[in-house]
Amino acid sequence: MAEPLLKVAGLQAWYGESHVLHGVDIEVREGEVVTLLGRNGAGKTTTLRSIMGLVGRRSGSVRFEGQELVSARSDRIARAGIALCPEERGIFASLDVTENLLLPPVVRPGGMDLDAIYTLFPNLKERARSPGTRLSGGEQQMLAIARILRTGAKLLMLDEPTEGLAPVIVQQIGQTIRTIKERGFTVLLVEQNFRFAQTVADRHYVMEHGHVVDAVSNAEMAGAMDRLHGYLGV
Amino acid sequence: MLEDLLFQLQIGLPQVALGLVNGAFYALLSLGLAVIFGMLNVINFAHGAQFMMGAFVAWMMLSWLGIGYWPALILAPLIVGAFGVLLEKTMISRLYKLDHLYGLLLTFGLALIIEGVFRNQFGSSGMPYAPPAALGGPPVDLGFMFMPVYRLWVVVAALVMSLVTWLVIEKTRLGAYLRAATENAALVQAFGVNVPRMITLTYGAGVALAAFAGVLAAPIYSVNPQMGSNLIIVVFAVVVIGGMGSILGSVLTGFGLGLVEGLTKVFYPEASSTVIFVIMAIVLLARPAGLFGRA
Predict the structure, then answer these.
(1) Which of A99, B81, B120, B230 could form a disulfide with B204 if both were Cys (CB 3.0 to 4.6 A apart)?
(2) Residue A64: what are its φ and ψ, rounded to 5°?
(3) How far is A74 from chain B (nearest CA, A)?
(4) Residue of B nearest to A90 (CA)
Protein backbone atom coordinates (compact mmCIF):
# COMPACT_ATOMS: atom_id res chain seq x y z
CA MET A 1 0.00 0.00 0.00
CA ALA A 2 1.14 3.55 -0.75
CA GLU A 3 2.46 5.68 2.07
CA PRO A 4 -0.35 7.57 3.85
CA LEU A 5 -0.68 11.31 3.21
CA LEU A 6 0.32 12.02 6.81
CA LYS A 7 2.35 9.65 8.93
CA VAL A 8 3.18 10.71 12.44
CA ALA A 9 5.50 8.38 14.34
CA GLY A 10 6.89 8.63 17.85
CA LEU A 11 6.05 12.33 18.02
CA GLN A 12 7.17 13.93 21.28
CA ALA A 13 6.67 17.54 22.20
CA TRP A 14 7.49 19.89 25.05
CA TYR A 15 6.06 23.19 26.25
CA GLY A 16 9.07 24.65 27.97
CA GLU A 17 10.04 22.11 30.62
CA SER A 18 6.85 20.09 30.51
CA HIS A 19 6.81 17.05 28.30
CA VAL A 20 3.33 16.87 26.76
CA LEU A 21 3.45 14.35 23.93
CA HIS A 22 5.07 11.01 24.66
CA GLY A 23 5.30 9.32 21.28
CA VAL A 24 2.17 9.86 19.18
CA ASP A 25 1.55 7.57 16.18
CA ILE A 26 -1.12 8.53 13.66
CA GLU A 27 -1.72 7.85 9.99
CA VAL A 28 -4.11 9.71 7.75
CA ARG A 29 -4.70 8.52 4.20
CA GLU A 30 -5.62 10.82 1.38
CA GLY A 31 -9.34 11.69 1.34
CA GLU A 32 -10.00 10.40 4.85
CA VAL A 33 -11.60 12.20 7.75
CA VAL A 34 -9.87 11.06 10.92
CA THR A 35 -10.62 12.27 14.43
CA LEU A 36 -8.55 12.51 17.56
CA LEU A 37 -10.77 11.84 20.56
CA GLY A 38 -9.83 12.19 24.18
CA ARG A 39 -10.35 14.11 27.37
CA ASN A 40 -9.19 17.64 27.98
CA GLY A 41 -5.45 17.68 28.37
CA ALA A 42 -4.89 14.36 26.58
CA GLY A 43 -2.69 16.10 24.00
CA LYS A 44 -5.05 16.38 21.01
CA THR A 45 -4.55 20.08 20.41
CA THR A 46 -0.84 19.77 21.07
CA THR A 47 -0.66 17.02 18.45
CA LEU A 48 -2.17 19.33 15.82
CA ARG A 49 0.02 22.24 16.90
CA SER A 50 3.11 20.02 16.80
CA ILE A 51 2.32 18.80 13.29
CA MET A 52 1.91 22.47 12.30
CA GLY A 53 5.27 23.39 13.83
CA LEU A 54 3.78 25.62 16.51
CA VAL A 55 5.24 23.81 19.52
CA GLY A 56 8.76 24.87 20.34
CA ARG A 57 10.48 21.54 20.95
CA ARG A 58 9.46 18.36 19.19
CA SER A 59 11.05 15.12 18.08
CA GLY A 60 10.05 11.93 16.28
CA SER A 61 8.72 11.98 12.76
CA VAL A 62 6.02 13.88 10.87
CA ARG A 63 5.99 12.79 7.25
CA PHE A 64 3.64 14.50 4.82
CA GLU A 65 3.60 13.18 1.24
CA GLY A 66 6.86 11.46 2.07
CA GLN A 67 8.50 14.73 3.22
CA GLU A 68 9.94 14.91 6.75
CA LEU A 69 8.62 18.02 8.51
CA VAL A 70 9.29 17.45 12.21
CA SER A 71 11.96 20.11 12.43
CA ALA A 72 10.58 22.49 9.77
CA ARG A 73 9.37 26.00 10.52
CA SER A 74 5.60 26.51 10.48
CA ASP A 75 5.54 28.62 7.31
CA ARG A 76 7.32 25.82 5.45
CA ILE A 77 4.90 23.24 6.82
CA ALA A 78 2.01 25.41 5.59
CA ARG A 79 3.60 25.64 2.16
CA ALA A 80 3.94 21.87 2.07
CA GLY A 81 0.12 21.73 2.12
CA ILE A 82 -1.06 21.48 5.73
CA ALA A 83 -3.46 24.03 7.19
CA LEU A 84 -4.70 24.50 10.73
CA CYS A 85 -8.00 25.88 11.95
CA PRO A 86 -7.10 26.60 15.58
CA GLU A 87 -9.27 25.95 18.59
CA GLU A 88 -9.59 29.63 19.46
CA ARG A 89 -10.44 30.17 15.75
CA GLY A 90 -7.85 32.91 15.34
CA ILE A 91 -10.08 35.43 13.61
CA PHE A 92 -8.24 38.75 13.40
CA ALA A 93 -10.09 41.69 14.96
CA SER A 94 -8.29 44.33 12.94
CA LEU A 95 -9.21 42.66 9.63
CA ASP A 96 -12.68 42.59 8.08
CA VAL A 97 -14.32 39.34 7.01
CA THR A 98 -12.99 39.47 3.45
CA GLU A 99 -9.47 40.29 4.62
CA ASN A 100 -9.61 37.42 7.09
CA LEU A 101 -10.81 35.13 4.34
CA LEU A 102 -8.09 36.20 1.92
CA LEU A 103 -5.30 36.28 4.50
CA PRO A 104 -3.72 32.83 4.17
CA PRO A 105 -1.62 32.84 1.01
CA VAL A 106 -2.40 30.27 -1.66
CA VAL A 107 0.28 27.63 -1.26
CA ARG A 108 -0.70 25.35 -4.11
CA PRO A 109 -3.24 25.12 -6.89
CA GLY A 110 -6.39 23.14 -6.21
CA GLY A 111 -8.01 25.21 -3.46
CA MET A 112 -11.64 26.30 -3.63
CA ASP A 113 -12.36 29.62 -5.34
CA LEU A 114 -14.22 32.43 -3.62
CA ASP A 115 -17.52 31.72 -5.38
CA ALA A 116 -17.51 28.14 -4.20
CA ILE A 117 -16.68 29.27 -0.67
CA TYR A 118 -19.49 31.84 -0.67
CA THR A 119 -21.90 29.16 -1.90
CA LEU A 120 -20.89 27.02 1.04
CA PHE A 121 -20.96 29.92 3.52
CA PRO A 122 -23.41 32.56 2.24
CA ASN A 123 -23.22 34.53 5.52
CA LEU A 124 -19.61 35.42 4.87
CA LYS A 125 -20.56 37.23 1.69
CA GLU A 126 -23.32 39.20 3.40
CA ARG A 127 -20.98 40.29 6.15
CA ALA A 128 -17.92 40.89 3.97
CA ARG A 129 -17.11 44.32 5.45
CA SER A 130 -17.74 43.58 9.14
CA PRO A 131 -14.72 43.33 11.42
CA GLY A 132 -13.89 39.65 11.80
CA THR A 133 -14.65 39.47 15.49
CA ARG A 134 -18.11 41.05 15.13
CA LEU A 135 -19.41 37.78 13.70
CA SER A 136 -21.29 35.31 15.84
CA GLY A 137 -19.36 32.34 17.20
CA GLY A 138 -20.77 30.07 14.51
CA GLU A 139 -19.95 32.52 11.74
CA GLN A 140 -16.43 32.95 13.09
CA GLN A 141 -15.98 29.18 13.00
CA MET A 142 -17.27 29.09 9.40
CA LEU A 143 -14.82 31.87 8.52
CA ALA A 144 -11.95 30.04 10.19
CA ILE A 145 -12.72 26.93 8.12
CA ALA A 146 -13.48 28.84 4.89
CA ARG A 147 -10.16 30.65 5.17
CA ILE A 148 -8.11 27.46 4.80
CA LEU A 149 -10.17 26.01 1.94
CA ARG A 150 -8.79 28.57 -0.50
CA THR A 151 -5.13 27.88 0.01
CA GLY A 152 -4.81 24.59 -1.80
CA ALA A 153 -3.71 22.84 1.39
CA LYS A 154 -4.53 19.14 1.10
CA LEU A 155 -4.69 18.30 4.78
CA LEU A 156 -6.99 20.43 6.92
CA MET A 157 -6.60 20.13 10.67
CA LEU A 158 -9.68 21.35 12.53
CA ASP A 159 -9.38 21.80 16.27
CA GLU A 160 -12.76 21.33 17.99
CA PRO A 161 -14.80 23.21 15.42
CA THR A 162 -18.06 22.50 17.25
CA GLU A 163 -16.97 23.69 20.67
CA GLY A 164 -19.49 25.97 22.31
CA LEU A 165 -21.83 26.18 19.32
CA ALA A 166 -25.59 25.67 19.14
CA PRO A 167 -26.81 22.26 17.86
CA VAL A 168 -28.09 23.70 14.58
CA ILE A 169 -24.66 25.24 13.87
CA VAL A 170 -22.97 21.97 14.84
CA GLN A 171 -25.09 20.23 12.20
CA GLN A 172 -24.06 22.84 9.66
CA ILE A 173 -20.41 22.27 10.47
CA GLY A 174 -20.93 18.51 10.12
CA GLN A 175 -22.43 19.14 6.68
CA THR A 176 -19.47 21.35 5.80
CA ILE A 177 -16.99 18.66 6.76
CA ARG A 178 -18.82 16.10 4.61
CA THR A 179 -18.82 18.57 1.71
CA ILE A 180 -15.11 19.25 1.92
CA LYS A 181 -14.44 15.52 2.14
CA GLU A 182 -16.43 15.04 -1.09
CA ARG A 183 -14.25 17.71 -2.65
CA GLY A 184 -11.22 15.57 -1.93
CA PHE A 185 -9.76 17.31 1.11
CA THR A 186 -8.26 15.21 3.87
CA VAL A 187 -9.30 16.18 7.39
CA LEU A 188 -7.73 15.58 10.77
CA LEU A 189 -10.30 16.59 13.35
CA VAL A 190 -9.96 17.05 17.09
CA GLU A 191 -13.21 16.40 18.93
CA GLN A 192 -14.49 15.81 22.41
CA ASN A 193 -17.95 14.92 21.21
CA PHE A 194 -17.72 11.43 19.73
CA ARG A 195 -21.37 11.39 18.69
CA PHE A 196 -20.56 14.28 16.37
CA ALA A 197 -17.29 12.61 15.29
CA GLN A 198 -19.24 9.50 14.37
CA THR A 199 -21.33 11.45 11.85
CA VAL A 200 -18.38 12.77 9.86
CA ALA A 201 -15.30 10.59 10.28
CA ASP A 202 -13.94 7.37 8.77
CA ARG A 203 -11.69 6.48 11.68
CA HIS A 204 -10.95 7.60 15.20
CA TYR A 205 -7.88 7.65 17.38
CA VAL A 206 -8.24 7.94 21.14
CA MET A 207 -5.57 9.84 23.06
CA GLU A 208 -4.69 9.71 26.72
CA HIS A 209 -1.75 11.29 28.58
CA GLY A 210 0.10 12.36 25.46
CA HIS A 211 -0.17 9.23 23.35
CA VAL A 212 -2.60 7.27 21.23
CA VAL A 213 -4.20 4.45 23.24
CA ASP A 214 -6.77 3.10 20.80
CA ALA A 215 -7.95 3.25 17.21
CA VAL A 216 -11.49 2.51 16.06
CA SER A 217 -12.96 2.61 12.57
CA ASN A 218 -16.34 4.25 12.23
CA ALA A 219 -17.93 0.89 11.39
CA GLU A 220 -16.69 -0.59 14.66
CA MET A 221 -17.81 2.41 16.64
CA ALA A 222 -21.16 1.00 17.73
CA GLY A 223 -19.50 -2.11 19.15
CA ALA A 224 -16.82 -0.10 20.89
CA MET A 225 -19.10 2.25 22.77
CA ASP A 226 -18.35 0.80 26.20
CA ARG A 227 -14.64 1.11 25.59
CA LEU A 228 -15.01 4.70 24.38
CA HIS A 229 -17.17 5.63 27.33
CA GLY A 230 -14.40 4.33 29.52
CA TYR A 231 -11.77 6.53 27.82
CA LEU A 232 -13.84 9.62 27.57
CA GLY A 233 -15.65 9.28 30.87
CA VAL A 234 -19.08 10.28 29.65
CA MET B 1 -11.11 90.77 25.43
CA LEU B 2 -12.18 88.52 22.58
CA GLU B 3 -10.97 91.11 20.07
CA ASP B 4 -7.65 91.13 21.85
CA LEU B 5 -7.36 87.39 21.49
CA LEU B 6 -8.30 87.46 17.83
CA PHE B 7 -5.76 90.18 17.16
CA GLN B 8 -3.09 88.17 18.92
CA LEU B 9 -4.02 85.12 16.91
CA GLN B 10 -3.91 87.08 13.68
CA ILE B 11 -0.40 88.33 14.19
CA GLY B 12 0.53 84.91 15.56
CA LEU B 13 -0.78 82.89 12.61
CA PRO B 14 2.65 82.54 11.02
CA GLN B 15 3.84 80.86 14.22
CA VAL B 16 0.91 78.48 14.00
CA ALA B 17 1.70 77.68 10.37
CA LEU B 18 5.31 77.02 11.29
CA GLY B 19 4.03 74.77 14.04
CA LEU B 20 2.53 72.71 11.25
CA VAL B 21 6.03 72.25 9.79
CA ASN B 22 7.29 70.91 13.11
CA GLY B 23 4.14 68.82 13.23
CA ALA B 24 5.07 67.31 9.87
CA PHE B 25 8.31 65.99 11.36
CA TYR B 26 6.58 64.78 14.51
CA ALA B 27 4.07 62.96 12.33
CA LEU B 28 6.63 61.29 10.06
CA LEU B 29 8.86 60.23 12.93
CA SER B 30 6.10 58.95 15.18
CA LEU B 31 4.64 57.14 12.17
CA GLY B 32 7.87 55.17 11.74
CA LEU B 33 7.99 54.45 15.46
CA ALA B 34 4.38 53.28 15.38
CA VAL B 35 5.01 50.97 12.43
CA ILE B 36 8.01 49.45 14.18
CA PHE B 37 6.37 49.16 17.57
CA GLY B 38 3.21 47.62 16.12
CA MET B 39 5.10 44.82 14.46
CA LEU B 40 8.22 44.28 16.57
CA ASN B 41 7.05 45.44 19.99
CA VAL B 42 10.34 47.29 20.15
CA ILE B 43 10.54 50.94 21.09
CA ASN B 44 13.10 52.07 18.57
CA PHE B 45 15.27 54.51 20.46
CA ALA B 46 17.65 54.68 17.52
CA HIS B 47 14.95 56.46 15.50
CA GLY B 48 16.43 59.91 16.07
CA ALA B 49 19.89 58.70 15.05
CA GLN B 50 18.42 57.15 11.91
CA PHE B 51 16.67 60.43 11.12
CA MET B 52 20.03 62.17 11.46
CA MET B 53 21.65 59.53 9.24
CA GLY B 54 19.11 60.30 6.53
CA ALA B 55 20.12 63.96 6.60
CA PHE B 56 23.81 63.07 6.61
CA VAL B 57 23.53 60.59 3.76
CA ALA B 58 21.82 63.32 1.70
CA TRP B 59 24.58 65.76 2.64
CA MET B 60 27.35 63.28 1.80
CA MET B 61 25.72 62.46 -1.52
CA LEU B 62 25.58 66.14 -2.42
CA SER B 63 29.02 67.20 -1.25
CA TRP B 64 30.99 64.09 -2.16
CA LEU B 65 29.17 62.69 -5.16
CA GLY B 66 27.20 65.65 -6.47
CA ILE B 67 23.93 63.76 -6.13
CA GLY B 68 21.17 66.30 -5.55
CA TYR B 69 18.14 66.57 -3.32
CA TRP B 70 15.57 64.67 -5.38
CA PRO B 71 17.59 61.47 -5.90
CA ALA B 72 18.69 61.71 -2.26
CA LEU B 73 15.07 61.83 -1.14
CA ILE B 74 14.71 58.31 -2.58
CA LEU B 75 18.24 56.93 -2.13
CA ALA B 76 19.01 58.05 1.42
CA PRO B 77 15.94 56.29 2.91
CA LEU B 78 16.88 53.16 0.95
CA ILE B 79 20.46 53.23 2.21
CA VAL B 80 19.56 53.96 5.83
CA GLY B 81 16.69 51.43 5.59
CA ALA B 82 19.19 48.80 4.46
CA PHE B 83 21.32 49.69 7.48
CA GLY B 84 18.20 49.16 9.61
CA VAL B 85 17.69 45.73 8.04
CA LEU B 86 21.26 44.86 8.98
CA LEU B 87 20.73 46.00 12.58
CA GLU B 88 17.53 43.99 12.86
CA LYS B 89 19.07 40.86 11.39
CA THR B 90 22.23 40.90 13.43
CA MET B 91 21.09 42.33 16.77
CA ILE B 92 17.49 43.35 17.39
CA SER B 93 16.02 40.03 16.24
CA ARG B 94 17.85 38.27 19.06
CA LEU B 95 15.86 40.17 21.67
CA TYR B 96 12.27 39.36 20.73
CA LYS B 97 12.00 36.60 23.31
CA LEU B 98 13.13 38.91 26.10
CA ASP B 99 11.38 41.77 27.86
CA HIS B 100 10.70 44.95 25.82
CA LEU B 101 13.15 46.77 28.01
CA TYR B 102 16.09 45.01 26.35
CA GLY B 103 15.07 46.19 22.89
CA LEU B 104 14.83 49.69 24.26
CA LEU B 105 18.27 49.48 25.86
CA LEU B 106 19.85 48.05 22.74
CA THR B 107 18.42 50.67 20.40
CA PHE B 108 19.29 53.42 22.89
CA GLY B 109 22.87 52.16 22.94
CA LEU B 110 22.94 52.00 19.16
CA ALA B 111 21.68 55.59 18.99
CA LEU B 112 24.54 56.75 21.24
CA ILE B 113 27.11 54.86 19.18
CA ILE B 114 25.80 56.16 15.85
CA GLU B 115 25.71 59.73 17.12
CA GLY B 116 29.18 59.38 18.59
CA VAL B 117 30.60 58.10 15.32
CA PHE B 118 29.08 60.99 13.38
CA ARG B 119 30.22 63.57 15.93
CA ASN B 120 33.72 62.16 15.81
CA GLN B 121 33.71 62.30 12.03
CA PHE B 122 31.91 65.55 11.30
CA GLY B 123 32.09 67.57 14.53
CA SER B 124 29.02 69.02 16.14
CA SER B 125 28.77 72.43 14.52
CA GLY B 126 26.54 71.34 11.67
CA MET B 127 26.68 71.74 7.92
CA PRO B 128 24.33 73.69 5.68
CA TYR B 129 22.31 71.94 3.01
CA ALA B 130 20.67 74.19 0.43
CA PRO B 131 17.10 73.45 -0.59
CA PRO B 132 16.74 72.30 -4.21
CA ALA B 133 16.40 75.06 -6.79
CA ALA B 134 12.79 74.15 -7.58
CA LEU B 135 11.78 74.78 -3.96
CA GLY B 136 14.05 77.73 -3.26
CA GLY B 137 11.74 80.32 -4.84
CA PRO B 138 10.19 83.32 -3.12
CA PRO B 139 7.84 82.63 -0.18
CA VAL B 140 4.25 81.84 -1.08
CA ASP B 141 1.52 84.26 0.00
CA LEU B 142 -0.97 82.27 2.05
CA GLY B 143 -3.15 85.30 2.67
CA PHE B 144 -2.15 85.66 6.31
CA MET B 145 1.57 85.12 5.92
CA PHE B 146 4.40 84.41 3.52
CA MET B 147 5.51 80.80 3.83
CA PRO B 148 8.83 79.63 2.38
CA VAL B 149 8.10 77.23 -0.49
CA TYR B 150 10.34 74.59 1.03
CA ARG B 151 8.40 74.51 4.32
CA LEU B 152 5.16 74.22 2.45
CA TRP B 153 6.64 71.30 0.57
CA VAL B 154 7.65 69.61 3.82
CA VAL B 155 4.06 69.73 5.06
CA VAL B 156 2.73 68.37 1.77
CA ALA B 157 5.39 65.63 1.53
CA ALA B 158 4.74 64.52 5.12
CA LEU B 159 1.00 64.40 4.49
CA VAL B 160 1.45 62.39 1.30
CA MET B 161 3.90 59.97 2.92
CA SER B 162 1.57 59.49 5.89
CA LEU B 163 -1.34 58.83 3.56
CA VAL B 164 0.68 56.34 1.51
CA THR B 165 1.79 54.51 4.67
CA TRP B 166 -1.77 54.42 5.95
CA LEU B 167 -3.06 53.10 2.62
CA VAL B 168 -0.42 50.38 2.49
CA ILE B 169 -1.24 49.22 6.00
CA GLU B 170 -5.03 49.51 5.86
CA LYS B 171 -5.84 48.67 2.25
CA THR B 172 -3.32 46.21 0.85
CA ARG B 173 -2.65 42.53 1.18
CA LEU B 174 0.74 43.21 2.72
CA GLY B 175 -0.89 45.54 5.22
CA ALA B 176 -3.38 42.82 6.14
CA TYR B 177 -0.45 40.49 6.88
CA LEU B 178 1.11 43.17 9.05
CA ARG B 179 -2.07 43.86 11.00
CA ALA B 180 -2.75 40.16 11.43
CA ALA B 181 0.82 39.47 12.53
CA THR B 182 0.55 42.25 15.11
CA GLU B 183 -2.36 40.31 16.64
CA ASN B 184 -1.09 36.75 16.27
CA ALA B 185 2.24 36.33 14.52
CA ALA B 186 2.45 32.58 15.13
CA LEU B 187 -0.82 31.92 13.32
CA VAL B 188 0.10 34.13 10.36
CA GLN B 189 3.33 32.20 10.05
CA ALA B 190 1.40 28.92 10.26
CA PHE B 191 -0.56 30.08 7.20
CA GLY B 192 2.69 30.08 5.25
CA VAL B 193 3.86 33.68 5.59
CA ASN B 194 7.56 34.19 6.26
CA VAL B 195 6.98 36.32 9.35
CA PRO B 196 10.63 36.78 10.39
CA ARG B 197 11.41 38.28 7.00
CA MET B 198 8.34 40.49 7.22
CA ILE B 199 9.50 41.76 10.62
CA THR B 200 12.95 42.56 9.24
CA LEU B 201 11.50 44.48 6.31
CA THR B 202 9.06 46.33 8.56
CA TYR B 203 11.93 47.54 10.68
CA GLY B 204 13.75 48.59 7.52
CA ALA B 205 10.66 50.47 6.33
CA GLY B 206 10.24 52.27 9.66
CA VAL B 207 13.90 53.29 9.60
CA ALA B 208 13.54 54.43 5.98
CA LEU B 209 10.65 56.68 7.07
CA ALA B 210 12.93 58.26 9.68
CA ALA B 211 15.62 58.80 7.04
CA PHE B 212 13.05 60.31 4.67
CA ALA B 213 12.15 62.81 7.38
CA GLY B 214 15.88 63.42 7.85
CA VAL B 215 16.35 64.36 4.18
CA LEU B 216 13.31 66.65 4.38
CA ALA B 217 14.83 68.27 7.47
CA ALA B 218 18.31 68.78 6.02
CA PRO B 219 17.58 72.15 4.34
CA ILE B 220 15.63 73.45 7.36
CA TYR B 221 17.87 72.52 10.27
CA SER B 222 21.60 72.38 9.88
CA VAL B 223 22.84 68.85 9.31
CA ASN B 224 24.44 67.89 12.62
CA PRO B 225 24.82 64.77 14.74
CA GLN B 226 22.43 65.99 17.48
CA MET B 227 19.56 66.90 15.20
CA GLY B 228 17.84 63.62 15.91
CA SER B 229 18.21 63.52 19.66
CA ASN B 230 16.82 67.06 19.94
CA LEU B 231 13.69 66.03 18.12
CA ILE B 232 13.18 62.49 19.27
CA ILE B 233 12.30 63.29 22.88
CA VAL B 234 9.33 65.34 21.68
CA VAL B 235 8.44 62.59 19.21
CA PHE B 236 8.30 60.01 21.98
CA ALA B 237 5.89 62.28 23.82
CA VAL B 238 3.83 62.48 20.62
CA VAL B 239 3.79 58.69 20.37
CA VAL B 240 2.69 58.33 23.98
CA ILE B 241 -0.10 60.88 23.49
CA GLY B 242 -1.27 59.32 20.23
CA GLY B 243 -1.17 55.76 21.49
CA MET B 244 1.62 53.27 20.85
CA GLY B 245 1.33 51.52 17.54
CA SER B 246 -1.60 53.46 16.10
CA ILE B 247 -0.82 54.68 12.56
CA LEU B 248 -3.62 57.20 12.18
CA GLY B 249 -3.13 58.27 15.79
CA SER B 250 0.53 59.13 15.31
CA VAL B 251 -0.12 61.18 12.17
CA LEU B 252 -3.02 63.18 13.63
CA THR B 253 -1.26 63.64 16.96
CA GLY B 254 1.97 64.69 15.23
CA PHE B 255 0.34 67.45 13.22
CA GLY B 256 -2.02 68.37 16.05
CA LEU B 257 0.75 68.82 18.60
CA GLY B 258 2.80 70.84 16.12
CA LEU B 259 -0.18 73.21 15.92
CA VAL B 260 -0.62 73.27 19.68
CA GLU B 261 3.04 74.15 20.06
CA GLY B 262 2.62 76.96 17.51
CA LEU B 263 -0.47 78.31 19.31
CA THR B 264 1.36 78.22 22.63
CA LYS B 265 4.13 80.32 21.09
CA VAL B 266 1.47 82.94 20.31
CA PHE B 267 -0.37 83.01 23.62
CA TYR B 268 2.19 81.93 26.20
CA PRO B 269 5.63 81.60 24.60
CA GLU B 270 7.30 80.59 27.86
CA ALA B 271 5.42 77.29 27.83
CA SER B 272 5.96 76.43 24.16
CA SER B 273 8.75 73.95 24.81
CA THR B 274 6.96 72.19 27.66
CA VAL B 275 3.33 72.18 26.49
CA ILE B 276 3.66 68.80 24.77
CA PHE B 277 4.96 67.20 27.94
CA VAL B 278 2.16 68.73 29.99
CA ILE B 279 -0.34 67.25 27.52
CA MET B 280 1.48 63.93 27.74
CA ALA B 281 1.15 63.89 31.53
CA ILE B 282 -2.56 64.69 31.33
CA VAL B 283 -3.20 62.05 28.66
CA LEU B 284 -1.27 59.45 30.64
CA LEU B 285 -3.40 60.18 33.70
CA ALA B 286 -6.73 60.25 31.88
CA ARG B 287 -6.19 57.72 29.09
CA PRO B 288 -3.04 55.67 29.62
CA ALA B 289 -3.39 53.87 26.26
CA GLY B 290 -3.15 57.21 24.43
CA LEU B 291 -5.77 59.14 22.48
CA PHE B 292 -5.97 56.62 19.65
CA GLY B 293 -4.57 53.55 21.36
CA ARG B 294 -6.48 50.42 22.24
CA ALA B 295 -6.18 49.59 25.88
Answers:
(1) B81
(2) -125, 120
(3) 5
(4) B187
- Structural domain span for residue B53: 14-117+139-286
Does residue A140 sit at the B interface (CB-CB below 8 Å)?
Answer: no
Closest chain B residue by Cα to residue A51: B190
Cα distance between residue B114 and residue B126, in whole Å? 16
Cα(A106)–Cα(B192) distance, integer angstroms: 9
Residues with pLDDT less than 70, chain A: 1, 234
**CA dist., res. B133 & res. B106, Å (int):** 40
We report the CATH number of the domain holding residue B195 as 1.10.3470
Q: In what order do the strands lie in the sheet with A203-208?
A: A82-85, A155-159, A186-191, A33-38, A203-208, A211-217
Residues of A in contact with B173 (CB under 8 A): 102
Apex A201 CA angle, A178 and A4, nearest 5: 105
Q: What is the ipTM of this complex?
A: 0.92
Is residue B3 in some structural domain? no
Q: What is the pLDDT of residues A48-97, one digit of tens each?
A: 999 999 998 999 999 999 999 999 999 999 999 999 999 999 999 989 99
What was the pLDDT predicted at A234? Answer: 56
Domains of chain B: total: 1
In a domain, A96, yes or no: no
> Which CA distances in Å does A20 have to A41, A68, A192, A213, B113?
9, 21, 18, 15, 45
Q: How many CB atoms lie within 10 A of CB A53?
A: 24
Contact B235, B29 (CB under 8 A): yes
A110: Cβ–Cβ under 8 A, 6 or more apart, which residues? Answer: A152, A154
List of chain A residues whose C-beta atoms are within 8 Å of the C-beta of residue B186: 54, 74
* Sign of the Cα pseudo-torsion (A146, A150, A151, A152, in order): positive
**Cα-Cα-Cα-Cα dihedral sign, residues B197, B198, B201, B207:** negative
Q: Which of B169, B170, B187 to mutate to test the interface with A (most CBs of A within 10 A)?
A: B187
Residues of B with CB under 8 A from a CB of A: 173, 176-177, 179-180, 182-184, 186-195
Reference B236, options B294, B201, B179, B283; nearest CA is: B283
Residues B222, B223, B227, B231, CA torsion sign: positive
**CATH code of the domain covering residue A80:** 3.40.50.300
Q: Which domain holds residue A75?
A: 6-91+153-232
